[in-house]
């Protein structure tokens, strides 16, 4: 799979859940359901804010330590953008089912060292944000995430957006960054060897993808298409996906 | 009504030109009223919290975000259909939506109820009620009588019939005073024109109760076919997002299948 494919998304795919979304990009397909705010279990109950419960189910087999790690990262970043203080003592449940990955999940990949599956993070993150928006859960801002790898190439280092599994194998460092729609850094996870300069480059590339200035005025469509900034425009994608959902919901207006 | 209805996402900046200001100098300055989906961050920021269309009504000095969802959050003075889950010493515990904390319904908040004459409601029975207290830190409270007049005003236990789930946006449209013009739902009127006799009660919590009335020939009791047809018509109008013309076709089709 190449990174050039555009992201695709559908909202409200699961009729029984409060909100749901299906998202596919860079070879990953993830379906998410969101339920909430619902009554929390006694042990998850917090007197002043909602508990955000994230469950990640892999494409094959049952979840393990790797999934727990992804869940904990997603949980802390989603808690930041959901207005958890609006729903004390309740639970907002996000279930993410990975459906398709570019690597072969059926091969028994016993990891020598526990490492984060960086390439899947953006897909998981985007799907949960879309599902939360579809459920109408009050949020502080929307957010988008992207994975960036620093790959050595002919002696020089190249920044690759949405790296393939092969590129991650040879990469010197892999990073996942998420930004809110207010251009605040929400999540930054890195792995491997890198310098401060490299990280700054990675940060700039990721910010370009997540928060490309949206042309809010109608009739002034994205002009940046010709000059590819190295990756899809996540903010514009989010807005157009939601726009079609909202116009369909409010067809009677 | 405002003509411009921009799409807003959580955290978007609302252009100041869209925020209504009380321009009429004759009237007393009305405070700006924020409806669902908006959040005020002091001193002067108004930020949307959900994705939807921003609606502003300048002459009422109010604004809100119109959106559709399926999880009900109680708001005072909403009409809801609640299911009794159990009875306590002074209250019934009633469920407004699945997997949420129960609302309390005092035994005495029915029309003409006293300790001895209060309605006995077994678990599972339905009531049409009004939300009196909704607060994020407390469980909601509902009542089946207007506390000001002591009259039921159509609230109270719902006997027979069946409850159908609908989306919150559709419930809102059905409850509009002029649901035909503003909400573009005509399906109930059309079913009535086809000669079906039924009663409905719409709950803001995404539930609609349908019961068949005794028909012209004096056949008492619930006509199950009518109830199912009305419920299906409502659910299909909601999920398939039918316009007025398509509603007409749907009603024709369902009534033909029924007979």
UniProtKB/TrEMBL annotation, chain A:
Does the entry feature the keyword Nucleus, yes or no?
yes
One MF term in GO for this entry?
Answer: RNA binding
A single GO BP term for this record reads: rRNA processing
Provide the family line.
Answer: Belongs to the RNase PH family.
Its ancestry begins with: Eukaryota, Fungi, Dikarya, Ascomycota, Pezizomycotina
Q: Which organism is it from?
A: Podospora australis
Query: Know the name of this protein?
Result: Uncharacterized protein
Q: Which residues form the Exoribonuclease phosphorolytic domain?
A: 9-138, 144-208
Q: Which GO terms describe its cellular component?
A: cytoplasmic exosome (RNase complex); nuclear exosome (RNase complex); nucleolus
UniProtKB/TrEMBL annotation, chain B:
Q: Name one GO biological process term.
A: TRAMP-dependent tRNA surveillance pathway
Which keywords appear in this protein's UniProt record, sorted alphabetically?
Cytoplasm, Exosome, RNA-binding, rRNA processing
The record ties this protein, via PANTHER family, to: EXOSOME COMPLEX COMPONENT RRP40, PNAS-3 RELATED
Give the subcellular location: Nucleus, Nucleolus
Q: Which family does it belong to?
A: Belongs to the RRP40 family.
Residue stretches making up the K Homology domain: 161-214
Return the protein name: Ribosomal RNA-processing protein 40
Q: Which GO terms describe its molecular function?
A: RNA binding
Enumerate the InterPro entries for this protein: Exosome_RNA_bind1/RRP40/RRP4, KH_dom_type_1, KH_dom_type_1_sf, NA-bd_OB-fold, Rrp40_N_euk, Rrp40_S1
Chief site of localization:
nucleus
Gene Ontology CC terms: cytoplasmic exosome (RNase complex); nuclear exosome (RNase complex); nucleolus
Domain (Exosome complex exonuclease Rrp40 N-terminal) spans: 32-71
Show the CDD domains listed in the entry.
S1_Rrp40 (cd05790)
